[in-house]
């Protein structure tokens, strides 16, 4: 792991909150923010990272620590955007030192925290067929990570072998679909505009350019 990631991991662990994020959870959280159909203000999601107990105030005594932390988080977010745009998501995942298993579930926990900030937006986006399929696949991953899946233990264990590939493919598809959802909304807004030669929507009977334009 690069030293910058180790430093960020240590800073997360030292946050004065009851259950600070692991680095892998932060990575999943940031990815979820990027893929989210609705933009979320930085001050809102940063509070999730350093804890609601902080009441929106960064829990650092030294202002330079605040600056470093915010820049480190922003830098990782930019890296994720770059990887997604290239179609090569590279999530930070923990590995169980005892047996070498990839602990992808923690990353999914972080992603779920991002979903929890705008659940209605995620559900609404499912109206787009390109979004719906990977969205339901992601929900299945979340259910497995939380031990809430309808799959039996044999099926869950078999799934572990392809979990990371399933995860990255699903998130990449959501990222691609997100662009489609945004374009559809933008097109809807443009289509709804009244042309200058169209009848004015005020009901005057005049052309729009000679009335309320």
Q: What is the structural class?
A: mainly alpha
Unreliable stretches (pLDDT < 50, length at least 5) are 181-194
Q: How many distinct beta strands?
A: 2
Helix count?
9
Task: Choose one word for the global shape.
Answer: globular
Radius of gyration: 22 Å
Describe the strand arrangement of the main beta sheet, using strand numbers.
1-2
Distance between the termini: 59 Å
Largest sheet, described in full? 2 strands, antiparallel
Work out the oligomeric state of the chains in this entry.
Answer: single chain
Question: What's the helix-strand series?
Answer: HHHHEEHHHHH
Helix content: 55-70%
Beta-strand content = under 5%
Task: Describe it.
This protein is mainly alpha-helical. It has helices at 3-13, 23-35, 42-50, 63-85, 104-115, 119-125, 129-145, 153-160, 163-192; strands at 94-95, 102-103. It starts with a helix and ends in a 21-residue tail after the last helix.
Brief rundown of the structure:
The chain is mainly α and 213 residues long. Helix content is 61%, strand content 2%. Strands 1-2 form a two-stranded antiparallel ribbon.
Keywords:
two-stranded antiparallel sheet; 61% helix
Topology:
Elements: H1 3-13, H2 23-35, H3 42-50, H4 63-85, E1 94-95, E2 102-103, H5 104-115, H6 119-125, H7 129-145, H8 153-160, H9 163-192
Antiparallel strand pairs: 1-2
Helix pairs in contact: 2-4, 2-5, 5-7, 7-9
